[in-house]
Amino acid sequence: MAELAIRGGTPVRPRGYPAWPVWGEPEIRAVTEVVRSGRWGGFPEPGPRAAEFEAAFAAYQGARFGVLMANGTITMEVALKALDIGWGDEVIVPALTFVATAYAPMAAGALPVIVDVTPETWTIDPDLVEAAITPRTRAVIPVHLGQQMADMDRIMDVAERHGLAVVEDCAHAHGQRWRDRGAGCIGAFGSFSHQSSKILTAGEGGSLLTNDEELARRAHSLIDCGRPKDPEERGYTFGANYRLGELHAALLVAQLARFEEQRAEREAAAAYFEELAPQVPGVTIKPRDPRITRWSFYNYIFAIDPDAFAGATNHVVAAALEAEGIPAEVQYPPMNRYDLFQPSRSKLPVAVEFADRLDPARMSFPVAEAAGLRESVYLMENTFRAGREGIEDVVEALAKVQKHAHELEGLAPRA
Ligand SMILES: Cc1ncc(COP(=O)(O)O)c(C=O)c1O
Hints:
Elements: H1 25-37, H2 48-61, E1 65-69, H3 74-82, E2 90-94, H4 100-107, E3 111-115, H5 126-131, E4 137-140, H6 152-162, E5 165-169, E6 177-178, E7 181-182, E8 189-193, E9 206-210, H7 213-223, H8 246-276, E10 283-284, E11 292-294, E12 300-304, H9 314-323, E13 328-329, H10 366-375, E14 376-379, H11 387-403
Parallel strand pairs: 2-3, 2-4, 4-5, 5-8
Antiparallel strand pairs: 1-9, 6-7, 6-11, 8-9, 10-12, 12-14, 13-14
Helix pairs in contact: 1-8, 2-8, 3-4, 3-7, 8-11
The protein binds pyridoxal-5'-phosphate.
């Protein structure tokens, strides 16, 4: 008789974890008011709710300006365009992230140059950033992945010495602070996603933060079909409609009011997880950088050693945890595994000029490959909103899966 739920055994936590998103009367009221107002769209840009959210989120995170738009992919495209980055330019991105981080430079017309991450944090390796710089390099997009932040001291140092712009991909990092400066407020721009699963969500949406008034103006113009945003300016510049509607903006205003309490709850639960999880053989918690002075995360990412799990890799272990009732998955493959770069799926690698630069067969990212294909397991944010007992169940399930890992043999690596 099998013990593991994935093989028919009894799950550790059949009742599951709290739902996401959390909503109630404030959200219903906010949306109803917009419906009744008849002003649903994002034009004229910004609408009143969009402007309210932009100011409130920028203040919470610690930036001077916020620009709300359709999602957290075009935020990065707009940031690069606002920085005048495009055709012929190169933008350095990490090998372990959602594909959007590499797509955005291409959407702006630039070449993404992918570099590996560090084994300590699985965020972009500053030494490899420096080594990848060419005369065409204009920007770097560090990603604050999971509960970690990229080493912003080193990234800013490299960027300043080489005259590069920094666009922080903060899709996971609402609320994070580095040496008391908010994520997304250190580089030229910070890019945030408000897509359904993210910790500050309206279902869809994205924010750019910046401390530079001129960059904020350009971003507003780019998302509003190029309309001038300076009263002195005349005529249109280059842009498209990337506005977000007022219904979404109203939801974001209501969600922001809940954010700090949710963040603190996740922080306390994750600290407890870090206390308990190292007891499980083959589970490694990556040290938290003391320069992170306010901790927040979207998913929490830890490492497993497949040797301690009878050879099972991260996908199988995550599927086994899911079966035990623990919300776990593996989110990101190494960048060279994304369809975007596969010759059979995409025309990109055969584009003449980029042939040698975007050919996945020529890419090698040992750290991101180990993380994405064997070691990284992501716990969803709601795991951290079920108190200490919710965490104890995660650790019990992990220990159970490890103890009975021989039952995982024969399961396909991608469940
Ligand atoms: C690291 C990272 N960057 C960018 C994005 C893109 O955000 P959106 O889905 O809002 O376009 C995501 C969302 O999954 C992400 O995880």
